[in-house]
Design goal:
Layout: H1 3-9, H2 18-25, E1 29-30, E2 36-37, E3 39-41, E4 44-46, E5 50-54, E6 57-62, E7 66-70, E8 74-79, E9 82-86, E10 88-97, E11 100-108, E12 117-120
Antiparallel strand pairs: 1-2, 3-4, 5-6, 6-9, 7-8, 10-11, 11-12
């Protein structure tokens, strides 16, 4: 029996946002306009772009563990792959990695304890080469 059927049998109602559904099930979800977006990552689909979580933060999928930097291109620490929050994005120097290239950078707090550091968006799901990540505002 599927989880949804078990919950229905128990009289339980569960409401998931499109972004939460995508992040918990790996299934692409429709946004408010009904458009469905996904980026293939191995055998699963990951919701492309970012979504607001309140407090000026936006959750984005980091598909590969990434180095973080302070302003001035000074190495700061590490941001591990998975769902991470970001504040905004801005243009900067170009990074080339695994066949992708991008000159947009996203501001976040990293997993090394550094605040207000930058990660090149080449490590985030969504967007294309030399494009900002959808759903994350500009700084």
């Amino acid at each position: 029996m599927k989880i949804r059927e078990k919950l229905a049998a128990a009289g339980t109602t569960v409401l998931l946002t499109a972004a939460a559904l995508a992040s918990t099930t790996g299934v692409a979800a429709a946004d408010q306009t009904g458009a469905v977006s996904a980026k293939a990552a191995g055998n699963s689909a990951v919701a492309a772009g970012c979504y607001g979580i309140g407090g000026g933060k936006y959750n984005c999928n980091v598909w590969k563990t990434a180095p973080t930097y302070f302003a001035g291109n000074v190495r700061a620490g590490t941001l591990y792959a998975g769902t991470n929050y970001f504040y905004c994005q801005a243009k900067g120097s170009t990074v080339h990695m695994d066949g992708y290239s991008n000159d947009w950078w996203a501001k976040t707090d990293d997993d090394s304890g550094n605040r207000n550091v930058w990660v090149n968006v080449v490590y985030l799901s969504g967007g294309g080469n030399y494009e900002p990540v959808p759903g994350l505002p500009w700084c």
